[in-house]
Q: What sequence folds into this?
């Protein structure tokens, strides 16, 4: 039988199994490492602001990036009122493909990976921006992203106390329940944002509301604080009062995108900002003095998803989690798509090849088969 090119497929259950196997804290550390490597070769990537389709209820976005060897994109939505319909605010899936043939190597749920990579990027930025020795973080917004942010700052910065606040007390109860057993981490429920921010070295805002919210007000901010602003990530959707931004040193992921979507959409378009890759490569310093107020204006950038997909692709093979699927039609004679489809062989060939590819185990069979097929075609 002719070898059939197969795509590795990781559904939501597989992705969760993979992350449970690795451990959330370890996954975040590994993702931060992958992101750091990719940020260090920033110039190798063909970058663009994501393509956003806005509606009254939310946004659907496509996020592509490539380094000329591999290409990735993520589909992600943001619908703050989805909870009322029993759906997550943020849902995502992504594809990693090889540039030489265009063959899709991996199709994966990225809802969980988005939470992990967002937390990894936040902690990576905070390591370069927060004052050394930060131990207390205020966490405003205790929804789906909250545990990942907490564990990232606990594991990567040594945060030991989280001041948790959410307008929905059930969200805070869920956070406290989920992280009750984490050694060395204490979650303290707070009754207001103001109370939560008091005594915090770091403030993470990760709320969801499609409005120019003012979760943080200027008089809540103390010299030296680091603000990790995660929830404002769309035009018309921000969390910080603009006066906070006017006195802060601001780091962003990719300025061309953040000026449209981030907190800094509230400031003039020529407001100076530093990009995260500049901090990582030591070409810029985010904090000059202990009294600086620093802001990581996070919106989520395609490179973070590329790093996450690269990580997932390696893990799915190493841990034998996930399976192969015939995602794209792959006729024996690639030019006879019609004949192949009408003969009704697609499913059978796919199943046989799946078995063969599974037997290939962790050898990166999809990539090899994809390339072999393209060369033979
Ligand atoms: N920057 C990024 O890369 C990135 C990645 C993922 C998600 N996000 C954004 O992060 C936000 C949170 O995502 P999620 O998946 O946790 O959503 P979620 O809906 O699960 O949780 C949001 C929480 O915010 C709370 N909240 C809303 N308004 C609040 C307020 N004024 N004060 C305190 N709490 C408030 C809600 O009650 C809810 O518990 C969203 O806006 C999402 O778009 C950003």
A:
């Amino acid at each position: 039988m002719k070898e059939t090119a197969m795509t590795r497929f990781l559904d939501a259950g597989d992705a969760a199994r993979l992350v449970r196997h690795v451990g959330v804290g370890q996954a975040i550390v590994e993702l931060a490492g992958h992101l750091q490597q990719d940020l260090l070769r920033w110039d190798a990537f063909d970058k663009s602001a994501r393509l956003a389709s806005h509606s009254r209820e939310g946004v659907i976005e496509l996020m592509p990036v490539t380094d000329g060897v591999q290409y990735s994109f993520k589909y992600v939505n943001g619908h703050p009122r989805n909870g009322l319909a029993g759906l997550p605010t943020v849902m995502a899936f992504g594809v990693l493909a090889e540039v030489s043939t265009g063959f899709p190597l991996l199709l994966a749920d990225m809802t969980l990976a988005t939470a992990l990579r967002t937390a990894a990027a936040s902690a990576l930025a905070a390591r370069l921006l927060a004052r050394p020795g930060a131990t207390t973080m205020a966490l405003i917004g205790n929804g789906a992203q909250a545990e990942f942010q907490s564990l990232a700052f606990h594991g990567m910065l040594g945060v030991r106390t989280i001041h948790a606040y959410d307008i929905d007390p059930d969200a805070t109860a869920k956070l406290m329940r989920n992280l009750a057993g984490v050694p060395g981490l204490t979650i303290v429920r707070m009754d207001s944002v103001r109370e939560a921010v008091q005594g915090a070295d770091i403030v993470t805002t990760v709320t969801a509301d499609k409005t120019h919210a003012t979760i943080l007000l200027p008089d809540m901010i103390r010299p030296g604080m680091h603000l990790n602003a995660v929830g404002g990530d769309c035009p018309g959707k921000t969390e910080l009062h603009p006066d906070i931004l006017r006195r802060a040193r601001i780091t962003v992921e990719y300025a061309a995108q953040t000026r449209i979507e981030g907190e800094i959409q509230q400031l003039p378009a020529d407001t100076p900002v530093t990009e995260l890759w500049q901090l990582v490569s030591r070409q810029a310093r985010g904090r000059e003095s202990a009294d600086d107020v620093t802001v990581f204006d996070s919106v989520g950038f395609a490179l973070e998803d590329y790093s996450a997909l690269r990580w997932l692709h390696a893990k799915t093979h190493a841990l034998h989690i996930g399976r192969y699927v015939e995602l794209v039609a792959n006729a024996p004679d690639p030019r006879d798509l019609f004949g192949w489809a009408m003969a009704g062989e697609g499913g059978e060939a796919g199943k046989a090849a799946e078995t063969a590819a599974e037997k290939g185990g962790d050898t990166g069979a999809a990539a090899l088969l994809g390339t072999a097929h393209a060369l033979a075609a």
Notes: The pocket of nicotinamide-adenine-dinucleotide is lined by residues 78, 83, 89-90, 114, 118, 140-145, 166-168, 171, 206-209, 213, 215, 230-231, 233, 298-300 (CB under 6 Å). The domain at 3-113+304-325 is CATH 3.30.1780.10 (ornithine cyclodeaminase, domain 1). Residues 353-357, 359-377 have pLDDT under 50 and may be disordered. The chain is about 35% helix and 20% strand.
